[in-house]
Amino acid sequence: MINVSQPVLGAREAAAVQSVLSSLWVGMGPKVEAFESALAKRLGVRHVVAVSSGTAALHLALAALKRDERDQVIVPSLTFAATVQAVLMAGYTPVFAEVDRRDLNIAADDVAGLITRRTRAILPVHLAGCPCRLAELGQLADESGAALVEDAAHAFGSRYQGRPVGQHGDAVCFSFSANKNITCAEGGAVATNSGELAARVRTRRFLGLTQHTWERRGEEQPWRYAVTDRGYRYHMSDIHAAIGLVQLQRFDDFARKRREIARRYDAALRDLPRTVILQRDWDLVVPNLYVLRVTHGLRDALYAHLREAGIICGVHYAPNHLQPAFRVYTRSMPVTEGLAGEVLTLPLHPMLTAEQVSEIAARVRGFLLQATPAATETPACPALG
């Protein structure tokens, strides 16, 4: 089988984990602090708070916003359910936005029409690693007084207008789960230039304590601590941080390979009928996923064709406004629903060989050049690309 995604883990990560095990300090400690410092340096931000998952990062970032009468967060429907669950966990109401046909990211034109007096935050998702149009979204946030909280789970290493994703929003949330650009096996982080927001996230990630166990280890009475805020058990362990530190050292090689694979797909698939190549600049984007639009009702048949050949693809994502748990927040979303029937994620990870990429592309080409359209192509929506 050729997997749609898989982590790259080896002897260096194993040695880092063994070092932590040998130290007998496996909870949140010096490795987490080192990982946060390394991430902050890489991203060019003042503060990074490492947590247990990307979902925890989103929850904490939203919960750390100062509460007022505004209770809505604008979020794309075409994203993983975790983004929407985090909005609900933080006590907000999701308002679903359409996405742009060109890159599948949240459509600023639609966001502009959804902003009201109740809008507390705009939550763009950098789908597949391609940065959203942050200049437009940032302007909308500034004009409305809303916060800009980014879901950058796919976008570690990508850049927007020459600056790393992580520098633009009030808070930017990363995931380091097994299928991300770097992995800690499981983990996440909140990046921000706000010391106040970072302090609230730090306190809340460990049950509202002002000092966690490692920080109190040298005190005469380490059992004395203050609980100053509500909190969660969202901290990262040194085992996970040790893996992340090694992955950071390897990241430039990972990024180069991911870009090479994406460029090979582009070259092989660009002239195909019944497909749309998304707009992405591989000099700026480190792709987490390679998403292709397959039109004319052929997506499911192509998926089945590739799976039969041992090529495991994905679909990112099923629209959240149609999920049973979220239907109370639904609205008419023809663009998102149309695109959800077209998107197909081809395998992309650093372990893929050039021969495997060529085989995948050849099978996609062979199928689409001979396939009989099952439906007419969805008409374009000018307002959303």
Can you offer a commentary on this structure?
This protein folds into 2 domains: 11-247, 3-Layer(aba) Sandwich (Aspartate Aminotransferase, domain 2), CATH 3.40.640; 252-384, Aspartate Aminotransferase, domain 1 (Alpha-Beta Complex), CATH 3.90.1150. It starts with 10 loop residues before the first helix and ends in a 15-residue tail after the last helix. The protein has a 7-stranded mixed sheet with strand order 1-9-8-5-4-2-3, with helices on both faces. The chain has a 3-stranded antiparallel sheet with strand order 10-11-12, covered by helices on one side. Strands 6-7 form a two-stranded antiparallel ribbon. By secondary structure, it is α/β, with parallel strands linked by helices. α8 packs across α11. The protein contains 11 helices and 12 strands.
Taken from the alpha-carbon principal axes, the silhouette is globular
**Rounded to an integer, what's the Rg over CA atoms?**
21 Å
Number of strands: 12
Please state roughly what percent of the residues sit in beta strands, choosing from under 5%, 5-15%, 15-25%, 25-35%, 35-45% or over 45%. 5-15%
Return the CATH class of the largest domain: Alpha Beta
Which second-level CATH architecture of the largest domain applies?
Answer: 3-Layer(aba) Sandwich
Rounded mean pLDDT is 95
Helicity range: 25-40%
The low-confidence parts are 378-385
Instruction: Give the structural class.
Output: alpha/beta
Task: Fill in the keyword field for this structure.
385 residues, alpha/beta, Aspartate Aminotransferase, domain 1, 3-stranded antiparallel β-sheet, 12 strands
